[in-house]
Batch of 4 targets.
Target 1
Amino acid sequence: FSADEERKAWLQHILSGILNILQKKQGLDDADNYYEFCRLLSRIKPNYQLSELVSSESYVQWVELSAHFTVESFINWRATSVSHFFLLALWSRLISSQPYLKGDKPSRLEAYVPQVTQAFIRSRLELAQAVVQDPNCVADQLENQDILINQLESIPVLARSSYEQIGPFILSLMSPIVQEFQKGTALQQMNETIVQKFTILESQLAWLGFIMGSIV
């Protein structure tokens, strides 16, 4: 760009287009479009500073709708899992820039990053259950080191930015799982249903263990 005004105008043009898609869900029912849209979202921050983003007239609405879109994506993880890397990258890049934000315009990230992080963690527990109950239809991402590493790269940045919320949240998920697991160890007899339940609990604990290990 030859001038800052052109750069700002281009950013506004991009954000307006993204908002239009988010509001109308235009084309997002197509898997390829969905993937490329998430990829586009992940490229916003590397090309613009957070201070430039928050100064855009569309930023407030963009960050709100992007957060809602991300949470919905994690909730519907069966159909959107291949795009999660891009969404995690988006939010980790945004929150990483928070300490360097200058000016009096707030980023509002503190309102949305905890929601995004919690939604992703919940989706891992649901994935752990689905892998056991429907192994032919759901791939176990714990068995794919590349995918696991890619996803866990962003979690420390997100979780540490709102540790007062994410720490207790993880413990609230882990405590009942541990209690159920301990009850099961006292059983004298096992049947297929109990074994399946144990396997689910083990997988869920593994996910929480990996997540907590990445944060520490």
Note: Residues 184 and 198 are 7 Å apart (CA to CA).
Target 2
Amino acid sequence: LDVVLRSWSACGLGNHSSNMASTTASASSEELPSGQSSISSSTGGPLFLEYKVNSVVELTLAPNSETIRGLVYCTDHVSNSIVLKKSLKHTTLASEIHIINAASVTSKKVILQEAPLTAEQGETAEELALPLPNVSKKALEEREKRAIRLAEESFRHINEKASPEGQAVFDRLLKACNDVVWRGESIVVLQQIQVDPPYTTNECHLLTSLSGPKHEASLERVKKIVAALPGQQAS
């Protein structure tokens, strides 16, 4: 969570708060009053200057004047969000995370300009400052590119002409054998075996140029995978 939230903020790769969750965190999103527009902060300046990381603040939120207090964990200008961390005591959860739309903040009270780094430095401090991790924008961009590439590959595995049963057979074979492609409405596995509609074990056969015990063993394995799917009948 530490790396995700802070790198999310530092590199301007923010997403809306509704998609963020953690087993040790809870999100708080506030509904804005009618007609209220989204602004960077109450002063019109950048969020990271208005809400400094590792400061402790108390915020009052519209529309119900709810008060939330915690350590400023990070901010994100893309989604206009402030992330507050509140440590929890006498519970199995370490902390509670609130992701707040900055436009819903009606008032702000600064409790500490900067939280102490250790308990010895502030024995009565409710929050301790968290060191900022090193963030590599290049590494994040590479992860984004990889995610896009994987998504594009997954789309290539979908055959709109095939029946739902055929797509289910393809997905199961892809998971088991990895080297699986569509050839029209037929499925080719390991460049050795073809499964034709209606995708039962009776339609599993070796490609014409292949023969021998090794290929026959591969064929039997594919038939077992297909037969294991619901509604299939073994040949």
Note: The beta strands are 56-61, 66-76, 81-87, 95-101, 105-112, 180-183, 186-189, 193-195, 204-206.
Target 3
Amino acid sequence: MSARAVFRLTKQVTSTLSNAGSRQASFGTRSFASLPDSIARSAQSEAFPNEYPGQNYDFNWTLNADGVTPLKKSAFRITKPLELKISGLAPLKKTPLKVNASAAQSTMLEAGGPDLDFDSYDEISQRCKDLLSLSNTLYCPEGHMPTTTTSVRVITNSQTLAPELLAYLDRAPKRDSTGCSITAYVLEDEEMNNFAAYAIEEVGEGGDITSVAAVVCTGKNVKVEQ
């Protein structure tokens, strides 16, 4: 085979390989672009489906751990005024809210004390959690007890109390949804008698044991002082 023939054959093979590579790249591009829009969007999605303001899976799991399941799929974690607005409520114009809770503290019962056994407390507490789970919307202000770093979460169905509680609590750095040192269950219901009590429990294992408190307040018109 002459040198010229070899040159022509080499040129032909190179051209064929180049065209094949171009076609392969072109096919790859067309096959990706031809995916249905729904699949393309799913591949790029970073949020869980069906999440929206008031329906957050991570936060709902923490509420489940607290014994409350937002069955109406409307539960707002509120750590700042903007989140209160997103829930549909208006922040108080004057903050922080000063509260004198000394009178309420003197009348609040402790579970296991002489005036309230654990069985009675558990019964009322469970009833409160069940009714909160059935509420149309749950408002959950979170923060620190004033002048402390004790974390507090309030789970309530009251549109009146939520802005007051947010104004009362010190703002805390927002972290992933977890349980707090104090969890308060506050239910306003025409059929519930006035009740205010708390229980202290120890949670954890081994040397990592901490004390947490659960507060239950129910009534027709619960006040922030409670």
Note: Helices lie at 3-33, 37-44, 57-65, 81-86, 102-107, 118-133, 161-168.
Target 4
Amino acid sequence: KLADRFLGLLRIEREYLQLHRDTTVQSLTLQPSLQGGVVVFEDSPLVCAVKHGRVLVVDEADKAPVEVVCILKGLAEDGEFSLSDGRTIVRRDRLPSASGSIGEDQRYLPMADGFRMIILANRPGFPFLGNDFYRECGDVFASHVVDNPDVKSEVQLLRSYGPSVPDGVIVKLLGLFSELRRMADDGLLAYPYSTRELVRLVQHFEAFPND
């Protein structure tokens, strides 16, 4: 939501791609769809973003195998990536001079102006148990840590999800989660409770006020 809001304010089109442990290099570039009872393979959000100069938002990058996230690193660092259908994504300044004008040679897919990547990943370690994305790719991306919001921002966020939840309940929940986070930081709890769980509780109290 934060990335979408950021891009919305900038009025920039985006493509969305969610990774998981079963993501392969092929599924990173091709997307199957059912058309008229026939499975058809189309360009993935990554290829569409490259072709049309959009921002690619990659979610859960820490869940994917290392060889998959290294593709993203190579694309950002080298500006070149070979697709399974024989085409090669390449930056315009690296197009071979013999390939003619842009778009003429079907072997190459020029990287359109405006193509960017926003990679979202959890921190390494329990309970996420994914790859250490920063260790593998942190040297080619500008990394930003998104911490839990401050109390004022969190109250405003929770109020948007539970407008009828009493202020006293929200204050108690904030105090509870503050203590849970402190215990996680001190090593007393293994799970780092986030705003996501807090929002779910407020939504529950909004739907079931008598609980």
Note: The CA atoms of residues 118 and 168 lie 38 Å apart.
